[in-house]
């Protein structure tokens, strides 16, 4: 698969899950502190749509040019839509190849996969993600500075126990590729799934 095909597979997998959720689960909290399941889906639907640079700058200005605040606000706004509209929006855009301004396909894959896990983990609905997909996202996310990922794992050696992937030097942190990814992205609960002498350093960051 190319990266856009991987994105489509992630969206389809998530849509299949969402179709099984109860109204209570749609309103349940996720690993994104400010978002419920429906807010995360709203964010992903918005991200799969064709967003122009002007529209993004208007939303960013409304948020005081704070990117995280803008994303949180727009996700919540979209999350207010009826459940059937959110699911329809995700389904209709499964094959869309729209990347928000200043991003590319790899970033869309990262966003989709990590947010799918933000939903699945609290709901206790694990899945088997293809190893090559996890590796692609790990390789993209490990050096992102603006999200704090690069600083979070600096001076540590990350070792995936279920696939051929390592990164960095220093005290080791072991776990599944998925758990390493979620911890790298600041999801504290995923650190409980990790082992090694570098775990407490990672937990403190």
β-sheet strand percentage: under 5%
Number of domains: 2
Largest sheet: 3 strands, mixed
Category by helix and strand content: mainly alpha
The largest beta-sheet arranges its strands as: 2-1-3
What are the low-pLDDT stretches, counting only 5+ consecutive residues below 50? Answer: none
Alpha-carbon Rg, integer: 17 Å
Calculate the terminal CA-CA distance, rounded to whole Å: 35 Å
Query: How many DSSP E strands?
Result: 3
What best-fitting shape do the alpha-carbon axes yield?
A: globular
Question: Level of helix content?
Answer: 55-70%
Mean pLDDT reading? 91
Question: In words, what does this structure look like?
Answer:
- The protein is built from eleven helices and three strands.
- The mean pLDDT is 91.
- A three-stranded mixed sheet has the order 2-1-3.
- A hairpin with a 5-residue loop joins strand 1 (157-160) and strand 2.
- Helix content is 56%, strand content 5%.
